[in-house]
Amino acid sequence: xxxxxxxxxxxxx
Amino acid sequence: xxxxxxxxxxxxxxIVEAMKDCVSSCNFNCTENGISVQAVDNSRxxxxxxxxxxxxxxxxxxxxxxxxxxxxxxxxxxxxNGANSDYLTISxxxxxxxxxxxxxxxxxxxxxxxxxxLLDIDADLLDVGPMDTDATITLPSADFAKICKxxxxxxxxxxxxxxxxxxxxxxxxxxxxxxxxxxxxxxxxHPEESVTISLDKPIDLSFGSKYLSDIIKATSLSQKVTIKLxxxxxxxxxxxxxxxYLRFYLAxxxxx
Lengths: 13, 256
Known about the structure:
heterodimer, B: mainly beta
């Protein structure tokens, strides 16, 4: 299975 | 000037223990409302969000917003020197390069004082909320920790499938498979043992067991954990503090 990073879901402030 | 006094050193000990293995250093953002931290683990899969509200403290003041860069391993070593039941006061001047940490023994006439060198940490802040939630599970945190540990012996991934009346935790690995089902339960005599499941949409998500092992290090912080799941979104694992929370946002795994 592939593991995306958290930055794939949340934008920078 | 920041000054925060914890009724018991054990609370900050538990918070630091829950964070230090996935985040080596982070900024403590201090405002008049309390202290918050946002940090991402080294592999950038798990995001930690901590809020220690002002009311958590026995005494709290923060005259101006300040950011304190803290090495969590070093903080853990110093906090480890105090007894769990000691009063613990942290303080820092507005332009401080060190954090002052004082333990006061409640019985003996003994005060221990330490200074922790602060770090200059350049970290991006991510915009995490508010998120929509398809399914919410609340269960005893110790039960969730046991599920994660038990399933980890089978596979690097834990699949969580939530339907209207149950949550299924499933692992499929080389040596075999395992699954654990939990259903809602109201325990009036022991409310901390209750399990609730609320669902807008069925959920089927997989998470890395390694990261769940890090998350369950927060188990001692709260008797309950709330898991918020949304299709194709990070899972949120929340441990409530007396006033505030420690939340973990974990990116799900996908079929390649």
